[in-house]
Write a structure and sequence with these properties.
Layout: E1 4-14, E2 43-45, E3 48-59, E4 64-68, H1 75-82, E5 90-95, E6 98-99, H2 104-110, E7 111-114, H3 126-136, H4 141-154, H5 170-182, E8 188-192, H6 200-215, E9 219-223, H7 227-233, E10 236-241, E11 244-249, H8 251-256, E12 262-268, H9 276-280, E13 285-291, E14 294-299, H10 306-315, E15 320-326, H11 330-338
Parallel strand pairs: 4-9, 4-10, 7-8, 8-9
Antiparallel strand pairs: 1-3, 1-5, 2-3, 5-6, 10-11, 12-14, 12-15, 13-14
Amino acid sequence: MPAIETHALRKVYPAPPPPKRRGGRSASPGAPPGLPGGLSAPSVVRGEIVALKGLDLEVREGEFFGLLGPNGAGKTTTIGILTTRVLPTSGTAIVGGASVTTDAVRVRQRIGVVPQRPNPDRSLNVIENLLYHAAYFGIPSSVSQPRANALLEQLGIAEKAYAKVDEMSGGQQQRLMIARALIHEPQVIFLDEPTVGLDPQTRLSLWEILRQLHGEGRTIVMTTHYMDEADKLCDRIAIVDRGELLELDTPAALKQRAPGGTLVEITLSGDAAAIIESVRALDGVLRAEAHGAVLRVFSDRGGRVISPVIQVAEEQGTAVRNVSLTEPSLETLFVSLTGRKLD
């Protein structure tokens, strides 16, 4: 049985009313600034915000599964549904053999959640945080105390057991969140952007912890903004955008689908559409796209195509503001699928 299954999963939020101008008149309608619980959404259709459009996913038992997508892709909504914090509009989601809509209590017993930003109880010390969380799941202290000590030792923060949370570094607090997620021995662990804001050394250290947990046979679902993180940690990666699944495969297989050639991204002073046809006619250009002032060129000549492109731009009175190159990778596949970078 898969650890997680979703079928035709859909989530639609009602669009909030437009803000009122002075005098009580409503401003012109537009995309809302945000959604309940900090969720973001990809599109507004007839006064509704469509966050998920029939998402089908299957996460295998013991798999390290990555969810990649830009802001508004539907990642947060998906995780919210799978962790029972958000009710789907339609479709089904099964986690650990239990339905998120009809058996939410059993789902919560079978999952552990590591939030993007640590949210421990700051009135308690480190080990009290773990014991309190274990008690929530009905675990007696005779069981939770040795389990908490073992987790703190495993995660390298045993010396902080009786410290206040505010005495810990950001990386140590994130380790505490992992320990808290594991204290009731869940079947599935969800991590939402677990290394955001961490320094490179702490980030690599956390990678090793996640590899160790995966090596123990745990099922892990992670959202991340870092391509290298998904590439190096995940067994399979789902690329989602605007509430839809675009690709799902192993990192190696996905990289093989990346468009051929080097991605050259050039930021112009004007609309890139004005020069797109001239650029497409250049030698070595496999594909070119215009996105506002950004020109994306896939080239089989690497950086040698930059000079001719700049010449075309200057001949039409457009200045070049910035140039970047990316070899074929998960990032170039992501850009080709979504039209934007994962920032």
